[in-house]
Fold this protein.
Amino acid sequence: MSIRTVGVVGTGVIGASWTGLFLAHGLKVIVSDPAPGAERGLADYLHSIWPTLERQKISPHASLTNYRFVGANFKDHFANVDFVQENAPERLELKTKLFAELDAATRPDVVIASSSSGIPSSRFISECAINPARVLIGHPFNPPHLMPLVEVVPHPKTAASITEAAKSFYKSVGRNPVHIREELPGFAANRLQVALLNEAYSLVSRGIISAEDLDTCVTNSLGPRWAATGPLLSNAMGGGGGTDGLKHALEHLGPASRSWLEDMKAHAFTWTPKELDALSASVSEELRGKDTKDLERQRDDLLVEILSLKK
Ligand SMILES: NC(=O)c1ccc[n+]([C@@H]2O[C@H](COP(=O)([O-])OP(=O)(O)OC[C@H]3O[C@@H](n4cnc5c(N)ncnc54)[C@H](O)[C@@H]3O)[C@@H](O)[C@H]2O)c1
């Protein structure tokens, strides 16, 4: 089924960004958020990101105004949406009630995707009386209008056709969906991120490297290389490539890296106030004299360049 109209629920950090992406791809968006001031906040945010979206290859039908804000009342407006992206706060009771209402307000074949970063959808479908098999997670990376990854995580009873429909919709709006086959905390990308961050916290809080140098390590080595080939392909190429490349790399460097892992476990960051203070002081030093808004702009400009080069 072709998707022309998307329902977006919640217009905070993530919902507003999704709305911009959908508008840029020529879709109509029905937007719901109960908060006073949400309509104004959304309009301001969309204006602020539109120039960045225009620099990407967006649809000839893209329109900054092709949306309708309906406040809390999506029930009267979602009968004709073709896809729902939910972005309400990360609270189980709230999502359980909301999904029951979304299930009742939409056509039964419509995919209802939650942006949730941490709650598996099997936990909030218990009150969906119509068709819980069309619910899944469509977890973006912030901000979704720039970052291509969407982790599509079905619950055990999500229909396979719904998973496929969600993946194909995300592809149609220029995203790169991956299928996480089992519900697990943190899905895949955030688990990878946490593994690296924990070691970064440890190294900086122990004073082994400054926050600035730590960031330089990543932006000048792992970051660009992984942006090109990802960690596993990079690993295989480091072992000479070909079908035995990864095996060779593991046999060659594996024993040493396993001993590093033991050392990392022995010195893991333990979140004590002393460690947090040391970490935070080094990051503050890195931020000294820099304006966060400028940094955000520079980051977004660079991301647009990198991602368009990758295409
Ligand atoms: N912030 C991130 O980096 C990030 C990244 C990926 C996924 N997520 C997920 O996206 C979802 C939204 O997170 P966020 O960071 O945008 O939160 P946020 O607090 O910025 O926005 C939540 C919005 O939901 C609205 N809201 C409150 N009650 C509501 C209701 N009953 N129905 C509809 N909307 C309601 C609020 O007014 C607010 O505008 C969460 O599930 C979160 O886990 C967040």
About this structure: The chain has nine helices and eight strands. Residues 9-15, 32-35, 38, 87-90, 94, 98, 115-118, 139-140, 142 surround nicotinamide-adenine-dinucleotide (CB under 6 Å). The longest strand covers residues 135-140.
